[in-house]
Amino acid sequence: MKHISLLVLNDATVTSIDGTFQILSRINDFQKYQGKPPYYTIELVALESQTAINHGLYTIQANKLLKEVTHTDVVIIPTICGDFNKIIAANKDYSDWIIQQYHKGAEIVSLCVGSFYLASTGLLDGRKCAIHWAAANEFSSMFPAVNLITDKIITDEQGIYTSGGSYSYLNLLLYIIEKHLGREMSILAAKMFQIDIERKTQTQFAIFVGQKQHGDEAVVNAQEFIETNYQEKLTVDELSEKNGVARRTFERRFKKSTGNSVIEYIQRVRVEAAKRQLETNRKTINEVIYEVGYSDVNAFRSVFRKYTGLSPIDYRNKYRS
What we know:
Elements: E1 2-7, H1 14-33, E2 40-46, E3 50-53, E4 58-61, E5 64-65, E6 74-77, H2 84-90, H3 95-103, E7 107-110, H4 115-120, E8 128-130, H5 136-142, E9 147-149, E10 154-157, E11 160-163, H6 169-181, H7 183-193, H8 217-229, H9 236-242, H10 247-258, H11 262-280, H12 285-291, H13 297-308, H14 312-319
Parallel strand pairs: 1-2, 1-6, 2-5, 6-7, 7-11, 8-9
Antiparallel strand pairs: 3-4, 10-11
Domain HTH araC/xylS-type: 220-318
GO molecular function: DNA-binding transcription factor activity; sequence-specific DNA binding
Keywords: DNA-binding, Transcription, Transcription regulation
């Protein structure tokens, strides 16, 4: 039997707290139907008996105060919403407790952008972490020591689990259930809650937005030039020359600032432009490919699949009305 401490952080989202509580509670019901004892003891743990969340819209009653929980098997950090720096500061009193529980052997499960809070404890330094694609740039700026993963929706490293995407925390819960109770129970939960158990990536949902809050003016100028002229034939030599920087230095600075090589950045901008066209107009696939700057159809299809997980035609069929 495992004790679950579901933390009620200030400005957590009610859906991630209640959804987690409901799913894990139902696992105990499934156990009962199979003639087995309950597997989880689930408690809402907070600093105070009542905690306001969603900017005061809801109030959640805790089962236990943090100071009353000296040992737990699993710590769940819910999704948070708002200014991450302010939320981290408002919840700083959880930090030492989380670290202590991890060193005592507890598993740490972070839901979506709850990883901002987990990263603030230092437990993610040097480890992999999944994050919602829209928060990736901000996360990288705040926590450069974390190995950010933006394509996968789940990471599992040394007893610390993270998920990327608001409701992909449901997939992480299925993953945890499978580790604890086996594949059969995880499949049963997926069927009962109608969760796509096979979803492994968030690439098809991601919208590429280049990181520009890095302070390197030459790189920002190059990014803006790429985004304005992606249909043209662009080369690293041309971009470095335009900004008066030697090619090797330019490539190094660009990668450090944006997290992408120059060529990757051009590819991602072109793919994003193609996605918008595939979603909204009736041009042929080849017309779209040529209009975003590619002359080699096969090369574009390969790049498009790399960043979306889908072929151009599959993407169009999925997202065009």
